[in-house]
Amino acid sequence: MSILYRSDEARGQAWASYFADHAPDLEFRVWPDTGNLADVEYLIAWQAPADFIASLPGLKVLFSSGAGIDHVDLSAVPAHIPLVRMVEPGIIDGMVEYVSLAVLALHRDWFDYAAANAAHIWKPLEVPPASSRRIGVMGMGVLGQAVLGRLGTYGFQLRGWNRSLREMAGVESFAGADQLQPFLAGCDVLVCLLPLTPATCGILNQKTFAALPPGAALINVGRGPHLVEADLLEALDSGHLSRAILDVTDPEPLPAAHPFWAHSRVFVTPHVASMTQPETAAPILLENLRRHQRGEPLLDVVDRSRGY
Ligand code: GLV
Questions:
Q1: Could you report the per-residue pLDDT of 76-120, keeping only the tens digit for each?
Q2: b (16+ CB within 10 A) / e for 115-134
Q3: What is the pTM of this model?
Q4: How far apart are the C-alpha atoms of 193 and 47, rounded to whole Å?
Q5: Gap from CA of 302 to ligand 1 centroid (Å)
Q6: Is 2-88+276-293 a domain of CATH 3.40.50.300?
Q7: Which residue's alpha carbon is nearest to atom 1 within ligand 1?
Q8: Residues of the chain with CATH 3.40.50.720
Q9: Catalytic residues
Q10: Contact indicator for 105, 111 with CB cutoff of 8 Å
Q11: What is the 46 CA–ligand 1 centroid distance (Å)?
């Protein structure tokens, strides 16, 4: 019984040692030491190219090593092989930290003070209460709900938008295309935590920005292709949007000459908002794998028709 890990190399050994300690019956292989590909039954992967999947005749389950699965070519994964998303406490905590940091930085004018520091200017700005700010999260899945839960502890007004209605205490919920505009109209900060699907690609566009109140800010922690870059630059330059914090871009890495780098009101981080942590992810993945071995339904299986 073999598992092959083909993802971030630096974290491969931590995965291997967890499996060595807790599942000695399983042979855990770390790429590029694949051994005989014919007896690989479980694959943990970030990139899973079609020809590589085709070289694994005994594959039973494909586990994504990240929360998103948009990088996997679903047409290359035979229909009988379930694809499982990564849902684990480390990835959730990382996202909660990053979005809290970004929202608080916007709320407390941190970027203005960074500029003032650089210019040696002492200039206090108003300090409005958190209760006067409306934060909206697009995508109320596991990550979106965890983010909203934490933001609520600061006292912000919260709203969430989801494909299908998700009720959450303390959050005004909106659902579907019909309620997108009313949702956006009440977002001083818009956080994108959507999965990337054909329906959400390009959703951060001119129409979306125009529906936000003047002075609103954007935080994109979804995927680069959610955003129409030219529309963001236009909304910033016209003064309608105040600022954008982008952890994801298209392409990644963002080329050095890209206008986002030089824009004084765009702040880019290199896709680090949240990462799978082997210490917390390995136990969850192993338990899911054991479920499969016992013939029980797997958790967090991707619905291929929805794309997440
Ligand atoms: C990171 O972007 C992930 O999908 O885990």
A1: 999 999 999 999 999 999 999 999 999 999 999 999 999 999 999
A2: eeeeeeeeeeeeeeebeebb
A3: 0.96
A4: 21
A5: 14
A6: no
A7: 66
A8: 2-88+276-293, 89-268
A9: 223, 271
A10: yes
A11: 9
